[in-house]
From TrEMBL:
Pfam families given in the database record: Fasciclin (PF02469)
Classification via PANTHER family: FI19380P1, PERIOSTIN-RELATED
Keyword Signal recorded: yes
GO terms for cellular component: fungal-type vacuole membrane
InterPro entries per UniProt: Adhesion/Biosynth-related (IPR050904), FAS1_dom_sf (IPR036378), FAS1_domain (IPR000782)
Ranges where the FAS1 domain occurs: 24-179, 188-326
Organism whose genome encodes this protein: Lepidopterella palustris CBS 459.81
Signal peptide (UniProt feature, chain positions): 1-21
Keywords: Signal
GO terms of biological process kind: macroautophagy
Lineage: Eukaryota, Fungi, Dikarya, Ascomycota, Pezizomycotina
Protein name as catalogued: FAS1 domain-containing protein
Length: 428
């Protein structure tokens, strides 16, 4: 009897110590033992079993961080761009791309995150969603010293409800909103039109489609199908204030093209996220002239333009919003950081500030937009967009009445409306 007890004790301690030595659960173990992750597990099993198997047998030498959406996150996908249509249409290829975007290369625990954003490469590399060298990125930040936040396409914000769950291949953060694979430049620029002024980009977007001779606009085509682009996009107010100068420039399409090209950097080592931009960085633009970054007073400036919003992720790179139009004829403009608004570099010789953003009649057509009525949030909450809680996002139509019109701005009314707005475009 005594011997049996000793033997039992020994084998118990043997079992304990061997299980301690190898105690980190597998990926599947964590998912199946966490009630809130059952939809994530089912979705992986049904739509991407290969990814599940791969994550379950990762070599410890190359850990990953899994952003694991909880069941509530999957239940609200209908309100979100990209992920909403993918799930409601049962588009398995798109679902696979979405799932793999939740795998972040490297181990990024909450204590490794910084109070400023970092942009981490993910495993999403399909060029439809990730025409960027090194894999599509997600932003990660530690806010208020405790909140773990990830940002993705269309400024989607995902909050970790539970961080740092160890598994054999790395760590898992349980998030409250799926990360959204970035959309194209036009789709991303359209989205923000109805939100705060610092995001309004339809004027610049329209300018890239400017085509008085009705040919496919070269810049718009390039921005759609070139990898590793960085777009420094002046907001609508910035274009409005120099409307007269732009109208003069537009009389000479190649001068306008050069001005627009001066806002674009292609390649040059990959997309330039804000974390890559430090004081005195110079970048050669598509126009051939260089721009200079200045870091001062907690802001980044491009020449003399202040970066109002940084790091809007797009399929093929990243976009930063400026408060001033840049000019390739004034490459040495420097900011006055103490001024809230920088002095325009284009001289407004003719014309006055426009009451409407110029070039918007050239915006692309067939813009399909999801209206995330229930999901639109303001500021701190998780969700899609940075807008106010009362207005949704809609495609801004471009009709001027010349060749038919377009649907007007669509406001999100009923909760859960999935609005598909096909605006009749008017290419003059
Ligand atoms: C990339 O994703 C698209 C859209 O989801 C899909 O049609 C295509 O087959 C994918 N390409 C590859 C190489 O997996
Ligand atoms: C992930 O990081 C490893 C190094 O830790 C690197 O070898 C690999 O190429 C990276 N993979 C992706 C998809 O970024
Ligand atoms: C788990 O689900 C419950 C019920 O929806 C929710 O209140 C809780 O915040 C979730 N926890 C995590 C870590 O997702
Ligand atoms: C049409 O305009 C574009 C620039 O907007 C220019 O590149 C192209 O050469 C023009 N084509 C013709 C036929 O004039
Ligand atoms: C660019 O892509 C958008 C969205 O996919 C599309 O609506 C637009 O027609 C494209 N424009 C060009 C010039 O290729
Ligand atoms: C990605 O970029 C490459 C190179 O710039 C381009 O040739 C290709 O068409 C782009 N792919 C997509 C899907 O836009
Ligand atoms: C930006 O920084 C990341 C690391 O933070 C680096 O991997 C990448 O190469 C940098 N890109 C450029 C264009 O310098
Ligand atoms: C930033 O760079 C500029 C040159 O572009 C230089 O004059 C200035 O001293 C630098 N500021 C800091 C804080 O290093």
């Amino acid at each position: 009897m005594f011997h049996t007890l000793i033997a039992l004790g020994l084998s118990l301690s043997f079992l304990l110590s061997s299980s301690l030595a190898d105690s980190t659960p597998s990926f599947k173990d964590v998912l199946s033992s966490t009630a809130n992750l059952s939809t994530f597990l089912n979705t992986l099993q049904n739509s991407y079993p290969d990814l599940l198997a791969q994550l379950n047998s990762l070599p410890s030498s190359s850990p990953v961080t899994i952003l694991a959406p909880n069941n509530d996150a999957f239940a609200k996908t209908v309100y979100y761009p990209v992920v909403g249509p993918a799930f409601s249409n049962g588009d398995e290829a798109a679902i696979q791309n979405i799932l793999i975007y939740h795998v972040v290369n490297g181990s990024h625990s909450s204590k490794d995150l910084l109070p400023t954003f970092q942009y981490f490469p993910t495993w999403l590399s399909n060029a439809t969603f990730a025409n960027v060298t090194g894999g599509q990125r997600v932003g990660g930040v530690l806010q208020n010293g405790k909140e773990v936040i990830f940002t993705s396409g269309q400024s989607t914000r995902s909050r970790a409800l539970q961080a740092d769950i160890a598994f054999a291949g790395g760590i898992i953060h349980i998030i409250d909103t799926l990360v959204t694979p970035p959309t194209s430049f036009p789709q991303t620029a359209e989205l923000f039109d109805t939100t705060t002024e610092s995001f309004q980009l339809t004027s610049f977007l329209g300018a890239t489609y400017y085509s008085p001779n009705k040919t496919v606009p070269a810049l718009a085509a390039l921005l759609n199908s070139t990898s590793d682009v960085t777009i420094f996009a002046p907001n609508n107010a910035a274009l409005e204030v120099v409307n007269g100068a732009l109208a003069d420039l537009a009389k000479n399409p190649s001068a306008l093209a050069k001005l627009l090209d001066y806002h674009i950097v292609v390649g040059n080592g990959g997309p330039w996220y804000s974390t890559n931009l430090t004081n005195a960085t110079t970048l050669t633009t598509l126009a051939g002239e260089t721009i200079t970054i200045t870091s001062a007073s907690n802001s980044l400036f491009v020449n003399s333009a202040r970066m109002l919003t940084s790091d809007l992720l797009i399929v093929n790179g990243v976009m930063h919003v400026l408060d001033n139009v840049l000019s390739p004829d004034d490459t040495s403009a420097t900011p006055v950081p103490s001024l809230a608004t920088q002095v325009p570099v284009l001289s407004q010789a003719s014309g006055v500030k426009a009451s409407e953003a110029p070039f918007t009649t050239f915006m692309p057509w067939n813009v399909v937009t999801i209206l995330p009525a229930a999901a639109a949030t303001s500021g701190g909450k998780s969700g899609y967009g940075q807008g106010s809680a009362t207005t949704g996002y809609g495609a801004q139509a471009t009709g001027t009445g010349k060749v038919g019109g377009g649907a007007g701005r669509v406001s999100a009314g009923a909760m859960g409306v999935v609005g598909m707005v096909v605006a009749a475009a008017v290419m003059l």
